[in-house]
Write a structure and sequence with these properties.
Largest sheet: none
Radius of gyration: 12 Å
Distance between the termini: 25 Å
Strand content: under 5%
Shape: globular
Oligomer: single chain
Helix content: 40-55%
Number of strands: 0
Order of helices and strands: HHHH
Structural class: mainly alpha
């Protein structure tokens, strides 16, 4: 699966698609990460959050690896 991430909403949609593909509920993912279901909900809704260790742990748990392409380089 490839996705272009331009907004927090794009990343939230990707997280939701991958989470459901893995058969996980928001609550189950939150338990794995030792965080709240609300945190997962807000990320998937594209609400602005800090890019903290918890956020990257979530991406890693779902097998999401972010890459960057620099235009005109």
């Amino acid at each position: 699966m490839r996705a272009i991430i331009e907004t927090p909403e794009d990343l939230g949609n990707l997280v939701r698609r991958v989470r459901t593909k893995h058969g996980l509920t928001q609550y189950q993912l939150a338990e794995r990460l030792k965080t709240s279901q609300r945190y997962i909900y807000e990320l998937e809704a594209g609400k602005p959050k800090r890019a903290d260790a918890r956020y990257f742990n979530l991406l890693g748990q779902l097998g999401i690896q972010l890459t960057a392409d620099v235009a005109n380089e």
